[in-house]
Amino acid sequence: MTDTPSTLTMTLDANAGGGGDVTIKLRPDLAPKHVERIVELANDGFYDGVVFHRVIPGFMAQGGDPTGTGMSGSDKPNLKAEFSKEPHVRGVCSMARTNQPDTANSQFFIVFDDAGFLDGQYTVWGEVTDGMDLIDALPKGEPPREPGKIVKMRAA
User: In what residue span(s) does the PPIase cyclophilin-type domain sit (predicted)?
Assistant: First the structure.
């Protein structure tokens, strides 16, 4: 992949601790196809207006489903897993999937605390470098009563 952006900016609405920007360092060295997909969807506006439909304290915040249910994704084909030894620690961004490894599409999650039991089973594609306090402030629930929303997400 050439000219891969190095960061992604996700602007959250006021339900996320007052709203603001979350900066994510992209990791094409770990998951080039997943980074390519996230960047493509983000720059196409796919994530704009999408909510965090599953936010579990001490575990993770999940979003990326345009229906807000956790049951859907983009119209693009699912991705083959790009598992790595990268640990799932606070701030790591990883792809959500079904119980089948090669089913990641558009949904992703951001880890609140160390979640080593996910290591080697989910594709790590980035890490939050700024704005983790906004992720921490997302309304909790499965789904939250008034979920936090991505206003805009773009690669830089």
Answer: 9-140
